[in-house]
Structure formats: C-alpha cells, structure tokens
Design brief:
With 140 residues, the chain is of the alpha+beta class. The strands form two sheets. The protein has a five-stranded antiparallel β-sheet, with helices on one face. It has a two-stranded antiparallel ribbon with strand order 6-7. α3 crosses α4. The chain is globular. The termini are far apart. The C terminus is likely disordered.
Length: 140
C-alpha cells in the first residue's frame, strides 16, 4: 500500500464523525447507558463517551474514531482515515462533500471546535495559520 498524506482538515473531518455511528457501521451494537455513555453489546468493557472517545476497561486502552477502527476492525492508520472520509461523503481527489447532511454536521462540529478556541491558544493559532479565522476574531 502506498502512503497517503492527509491534510489537517481531512483528519479533523475523520475525527468529527459520530463514534456510535461508526460502531454501528462496523457491525457492532452500541447500547446507550446514559446520555453521555454507550457500551457495545459485543463487549461491555468498551465504553463510548460523548460519541467521540472510546475506552476499553479490560485492557486499559482508549482512542478516537481512527483508533477505534484500528483496534476493533484491524485497519491501519491510512485505511482507517480513508474509510472515515468515505463514510463522511468526502472524496479526497475532488476535495468536496457528496453528502449535504454530513457536510452540515461537519460544519456544526467545526463551529463547536472553533468556539473552544478561546480556551486553547494553540487551536486559535492553528485556524489562523490555515486562514480559517481572522486574528482577533471573537466569534464565528
């Protein structure tokens, strides 16, 4: 397999996908335990928190959407990211979304991340360097 380079935006897209949806798409059955937590019917030691992070208590491992596909679906990093981008309807070669609903969800997740930037100067600097926000901008 050849090396695929992913942009920061592509990695952000991959990490913005709902982890519960990814688990379902991968053949697992997420079971809601509370508003913030799900477990997997197939392995109740796996906890999904806030639909973004997973923890496996039996062997003390954790991760994000990419890590989930690597750990539970046996994918390497590049295959996992490419799969997440395809799931999001993003075509790398055309660099556009083919699914308007998923694009809307990505934009909402991006807005949520940008609102947190005031708490983290590194996030603010990243978006300024990508020219996605203006320096000194206090809101979106």
């Amino acid at each position: 397999m050849y090396n695929i380079r992913f942009t920061d935006e592509e990695l952000m897209i991959a990490k913005s996908i709902d982890l519960v949806d990814i688990a379902k798409h991968s053949g697992y059955t997420p079971v809601p335990k509370s508003q913030r937590y799900h477990t997997l019917k197939e392995d109740n030691y796996v906890m999904i928190k806030d639909r973004r992070l997973w923890y496996q208590n039996s062997n003390n491992t954790h991760g994000d959407q990419i890590g989930f596909l690597r750990e539970f679906c046996g994918m390497d990093f590049q295959t996992a990211v490419q799969s997440l981008l395809e799931y999001a309807g993003y075509q790398k070669d055309k660099e556009k979304f083919i699914n308007e609903e998923l694009e809307k969800r990505f934009r909402e997740n991006k807005k949520e991340l940008l609102t947190e930037r005031s708490r983290n100067p590194e996030v603010n600097l990243f978006y300024q360097q990508k020219m996605m926000i203006l320096e000194g901008c206090t809101h979106i």
